[in-house]
Amino acid sequence: MKSLCCHSPLVHSPSAELTVTALYKPSNPNSHKKLPVTAASSSYSFPKSLPLVATAAAASVAILLSATPAEAGFMSGFSGIESVPGPELPKMDFLTRFNEDNQKKYAEEDERFKSSPILKELLEKSKLNKEKNKQEIQDKYCLRGAEWGVGDCSTEGMSPQQREEFIAMLKKKTGIEE
Predict the structure, then answer these.
(1) Using CA of residue 93, residue 97, residue 98, residue 99, what is the dihedral sign?
(2) Domain spans of the chain?
(3) Which residues make Cβ contacts (< 8 Å) with residue 97, sequence separation at least 6?
(4) pLDDT digits (tens, 9 = 90+) for 113-164
């Protein structure tokens, strides 16, 4: 199998001489055969479409650099047809009055609901439950810290008897019994 490797890729004049190394599988694997080749005898020539390719590449780069960002639809902030105001519809008095009456009725019902004793009672229970749950969570963390010997409820420095009594009290307080 023969492969050609040119040491000088561009030929500037017809009389320039290139050195071409022909690699082949001879009996001695380290041998290379050097052949002198002139530009006239070389079969290499520039493609005739090179100016066309260069022009196309330059036009593509110009379009990419000068183009405005593409709009991807309503998700990209494109205003679209939804933002165009429609025609002014005629206003009917009976519909306007009906709408105003409904708005007043809903406002009165909302006010009555907000001032109802049932809602006040439920809000109060919710507030008490929130405080109770917060205290239970703090007690559980305190128990965990005492068992591990870390944090605000650490049992470090207590005798083993005091430690056991303290942890038992915390377990009783949190409702965790062994």
Answers:
(1) positive
(2) 1-8+15-43, 131-174
(3) none
(4) 899 999 999 999 999 999 989 989 999 999 999 988 888 888 888 899 999 9
Residue 129 CA neighbour count, 13 Å, CB half: 6
Phi and psi at 19, nearest 5°, equal -105, 120
Q: List, for residues 87-108, the tens digit of each pLDDT value.
A: 888 888 989 999 999 999 999 9
Angle at 123 between CA 118 and CA 125, to 5 degrees: 95
Model pTM greater than 0.70?
Answer: no
What gap in Å lies between CA 159 and CA 147, rounded to an integer? 14
Q: Give the 3-state secondary structure of residue 17.
A: strand
List residues bridging with 36 in a β-sheet: 19
Query: Considering Cα of 124, then 126, then 130, then 132, what sign does the dihedral take?
Result: positive
Provide the 8-state DSSP code for 5: E
